[in-house]
């Protein structure tokens, strides 16, 4: 892939703030957003967000170029800023870097804010740990922060998760099951046994069967629907046109037009157009008796701690499709770009 260049002579990054730590990365994973960003997705808004987080003209370019991709990481703390209170050198941690952070995690050393990480779960490997944070926090954002679900109000609620084989989808299913929900998910026919055995989903629906999908969506039996499918944008309109909604149901989608609009129309006009789209979807949902919402990855240290507890109590089990060596990163990107992954593509850097 000509958009990716591997190098072995990059200098170590620099700690710029008291709350930052330097981590030696042992494993990272490849997410769909990494593949999209490798060909320029989100460039407009991400550049603006990055500049807004930098302080001072001299910091506007530090560690930013060339662009290093990657969100998830698991590794060992190599150095701590003088304001770090909760971590120490030599401690094993895992976490994720926001898309607008100044560097990515597909490199041997990264600098992260201490709010981006948590102590590594003791019952899983570094490779498995690297498969969790970004998709886990995205699933948490969709279910709890945006969807309002948690371990106290989800018992016996009926949830539909579109895209059960994906990274966010399988974590969302496991969280919902640990909270006592009844979960239906979608996948291809050949993946049904895999999804049910690895996630604990109660039912699987063949998304390639139009009649079966229409019957599921028009049943009106779901309290919550999460669109975590790789073709989420294409599904949104068709789902909302054929679905019959239970009174008070919530529909949360992970694919929004914000970054695509800002890339195409610029930050100001693209953001305004996205806001109008959100308002229209909200009005349409209210008129049909359900709530339509967008969800994003959110760097939430409290949520990462809760996810860690769930991992350590075996309520969440990471699913890794394949482990790649560092020099095989282009292959990992190619695999994720093709879609229909059954688990995460993880890269070992040591």
Q: How would you describe this protein?
A:
This protein is about 35% helix and about 20% strand. With about 350 residues, the protein is an alpha/beta fold. It has 2 domains: about 20-130 and about 320-350, Medium-chain alcohol dehydrogenases, catalytic domain (Quinone Oxidoreductase, Chain A, domain 1), CATH 3.90.180.10; about 135-295, Rossmann fold (3-Layer(aba) Sandwich), CATH 3.40.50. The strands form 2 sheets. Strands 1, 2, 3, 4, 5, 12 and 13 form a 7-stranded mixed beta sheet that branches. It has a 6-stranded parallel beta sheet with strand order 8-7-6-9-10-11, sandwiched between helices. Helix 8 links the parallel strand 9 (about 225) and strand 10. The two termini are about 20 Å apart. Keywords: Mitochondrion, Oxidoreductase, Transit peptide. Belongs to the zinc-containing alcohol dehydrogenase family. Quinone oxidoreductase subfamily. Its main location: mitochondrion.
